[in-house]
Amino acid sequence: MMENQSLCDDNMEEAEYVLLDLDDLPCEVYIFPNAPYVLSGLDTLNPILAIDGKVKLIGQYDETIGTCLVFYESDTPPVVHEEAGASEANLCSGRPTLDPKQTKSKQVKLVTQLQKILKFRLLQNSETEGAREKPKED
Predict the structure, then answer these.
(1) What span, in angstroms and rounded, lies between the C-alpha atoms of 135 and 40?
(2) CATH class for domain 11-125?
(3) Is the Cβ–Cβ distance between 127 and 58 less than 8 Å?
(4) Which residues form the Transcription factor TFIIIC triple barrel domain (predicted)?
(5) Among residues 38, 43, 62, 63, which one has the least CA distance to residue 123?
(6) What CA–CA distance (Å, rounded) separates 52 from 101?
(7) Nearest by Cα to 82 from 103, 70, 99
(8) In this predicted model, what pLDDT tens digit does every residue of 90-121 receive, in sequence order?
(9) Distance in angstroms (rounded) separating the CA atoms of residues 100 and 102
Protein backbone atom coordinates (compact mmCIF):
# COMPACT_ATOMS: atom_id res chain seq x y z
CA MET A 1 0.00 0.00 0.00
CA MET A 2 2.83 2.39 0.80
CA GLU A 3 4.47 1.71 -2.59
CA ASN A 4 1.37 2.92 -4.47
CA GLN A 5 1.26 6.11 -2.44
CA SER A 6 4.92 6.92 -3.10
CA LEU A 7 4.43 6.25 -6.84
CA CYS A 8 1.48 8.65 -6.91
CA ASP A 9 3.51 11.31 -5.11
CA ASP A 10 6.32 10.99 -7.70
CA ASN A 11 3.89 11.41 -10.63
CA MET A 12 2.13 14.48 -9.21
CA GLU A 13 3.18 17.81 -10.69
CA GLU A 14 4.03 20.63 -8.33
CA ALA A 15 1.83 23.67 -8.89
CA GLU A 16 3.49 27.05 -9.29
CA TYR A 17 1.44 30.15 -8.63
CA VAL A 18 2.13 33.49 -10.29
CA LEU A 19 0.66 36.86 -9.33
CA LEU A 20 -0.52 38.96 -12.29
CA ASP A 21 0.40 42.57 -11.45
CA LEU A 22 -1.55 45.21 -13.42
CA ASP A 23 -0.59 48.19 -11.22
CA ASP A 24 1.72 49.79 -13.82
CA LEU A 25 -1.10 50.31 -16.35
CA PRO A 26 -2.05 53.91 -17.18
CA CYS A 27 -5.15 55.33 -15.47
CA GLU A 28 -6.91 55.56 -18.86
CA VAL A 29 -6.99 51.77 -19.15
CA TYR A 30 -10.09 50.42 -17.43
CA ILE A 31 -10.64 46.69 -17.21
CA PHE A 32 -14.21 45.64 -16.53
CA PRO A 33 -14.72 43.02 -13.83
CA ASN A 34 -15.22 39.54 -15.31
CA ALA A 35 -13.99 40.71 -18.75
CA PRO A 36 -12.92 37.76 -20.92
CA TYR A 37 -9.17 37.40 -21.33
CA VAL A 38 -6.57 35.20 -23.02
CA LEU A 39 -3.23 34.64 -21.34
CA SER A 40 -0.64 33.11 -23.66
CA GLY A 41 3.05 32.34 -23.56
CA LEU A 42 3.37 31.63 -19.85
CA ASP A 43 6.43 29.52 -20.62
CA THR A 44 8.14 32.45 -22.42
CA LEU A 45 10.02 35.43 -20.98
CA ASN A 46 7.26 37.85 -22.01
CA PRO A 47 3.72 36.40 -21.80
CA ILE A 48 0.88 38.25 -23.55
CA LEU A 49 -2.44 39.10 -21.88
CA ALA A 50 -5.32 40.11 -24.19
CA ILE A 51 -8.37 41.47 -22.36
CA ASP A 52 -11.77 41.56 -24.06
CA GLY A 53 -10.03 41.56 -27.46
CA LYS A 54 -9.25 45.28 -26.98
CA VAL A 55 -6.38 45.70 -24.54
CA LYS A 56 -3.08 43.88 -25.14
CA LEU A 57 -0.48 43.71 -22.40
CA ILE A 58 3.03 42.29 -22.28
CA GLY A 59 4.44 40.79 -19.11
CA GLN A 60 7.80 40.35 -17.50
CA TYR A 61 8.59 37.98 -14.62
CA ASP A 62 10.02 39.32 -11.36
CA GLU A 63 11.33 36.90 -8.76
CA THR A 64 9.98 37.57 -5.28
CA ILE A 65 12.36 38.51 -2.51
CA GLY A 66 11.68 36.61 0.68
CA THR A 67 8.30 35.01 1.25
CA CYS A 68 5.34 36.34 -0.71
CA LEU A 69 2.02 35.08 0.68
CA VAL A 70 -1.44 35.45 -0.88
CA PHE A 71 -4.49 35.72 1.35
CA TYR A 72 -8.23 35.57 0.69
CA GLU A 73 -10.41 38.04 2.58
CA SER A 74 -14.11 37.56 3.22
CA ASP A 75 -16.74 39.20 5.37
CA THR A 76 -17.67 37.32 8.50
CA PRO A 77 -21.18 37.32 9.89
CA PRO A 78 -21.79 39.80 12.72
CA VAL A 79 -21.18 38.62 16.26
CA VAL A 80 -24.44 37.83 18.03
CA HIS A 81 -24.70 38.41 21.77
CA GLU A 82 -27.16 36.50 23.92
CA GLU A 83 -28.81 38.47 26.74
CA ALA A 84 -28.10 36.82 30.07
CA GLY A 85 -31.15 37.99 31.92
CA ALA A 86 -34.22 40.19 31.76
CA SER A 87 -33.60 43.88 31.51
CA GLU A 88 -35.94 46.86 31.38
CA ALA A 89 -33.90 48.23 28.48
CA ASN A 90 -34.21 44.98 26.54
CA LEU A 91 -37.79 44.37 25.45
CA CYS A 92 -36.83 41.18 23.57
CA SER A 93 -35.07 39.33 26.38
CA GLY A 94 -33.74 35.90 25.52
CA ARG A 95 -33.28 36.78 21.84
CA PRO A 96 -29.94 37.43 20.21
CA THR A 97 -29.00 41.08 19.78
CA LEU A 98 -26.45 42.73 17.49
CA ASP A 99 -23.95 45.19 18.89
CA PRO A 100 -24.40 48.39 16.83
CA LYS A 101 -21.01 49.71 17.97
CA GLN A 102 -19.13 46.71 16.61
CA THR A 103 -17.25 47.23 13.34
CA LYS A 104 -17.57 44.81 10.45
CA SER A 105 -15.01 42.05 10.78
CA LYS A 106 -13.11 40.19 8.06
CA GLN A 107 -11.87 36.64 7.90
CA VAL A 108 -8.48 36.11 6.28
CA LYS A 109 -7.28 32.73 4.97
CA LEU A 110 -3.94 31.80 3.44
CA VAL A 111 -4.29 30.84 -0.24
CA THR A 112 -0.74 30.11 -1.36
CA GLN A 113 2.90 31.17 -1.46
CA LEU A 114 4.40 32.80 -4.58
CA GLN A 115 7.83 32.66 -6.15
CA LYS A 116 7.14 34.92 -9.16
CA ILE A 117 5.22 38.09 -9.98
CA LEU A 118 4.23 38.76 -13.60
CA LYS A 119 4.16 42.55 -14.15
CA PHE A 120 2.20 43.76 -17.17
CA ARG A 121 2.38 46.94 -19.24
CA LEU A 122 0.67 48.06 -22.44
CA LEU A 123 1.94 46.33 -25.55
CA GLN A 124 3.14 48.91 -28.11
CA ASN A 125 2.34 48.49 -31.81
CA SER A 126 6.06 48.44 -32.66
CA GLU A 127 6.53 45.44 -30.34
CA THR A 128 3.79 43.44 -32.07
CA GLU A 129 5.06 44.29 -35.55
CA GLY A 130 8.59 43.19 -34.62
CA ALA A 131 7.29 39.90 -33.32
CA ARG A 132 5.33 39.24 -36.54
CA GLU A 133 8.16 40.05 -38.97
CA LYS A 134 10.00 37.05 -40.32
CA PRO A 135 13.78 37.18 -40.58
CA LYS A 136 14.99 38.02 -44.09
CA GLU A 137 16.78 35.27 -45.95
CA ASP A 138 19.97 36.21 -47.79
Answers:
(1) 23
(2) mainly beta
(3) yes
(4) 13-122
(5) 38
(6) 44
(7) 99
(8) 555 555 555 666 666 788 899 888 888 999 99
(9) 6
User: Is residue 56 packed enough to be buried (19+ CB in 10 Å), middle (13-18) or exposed (0-12)?
Assistant: middle
Residue closest to 59 by CA, chosen among 130, 128, 118: 118
Give tens-digit pLDDT for 55-90: 999 999 998 888 888 888 887 665 555 555 555 555
Q: Are 111 and 71 in contact (CB under 8 A)?
A: yes
DSSP string, 25-51: S-TT----TT--EEEE-TTSSS-EEEE
Q: Please indicate, yes or no, whether the overall pTM of this predicted structure exceeds 0.85.
A: no
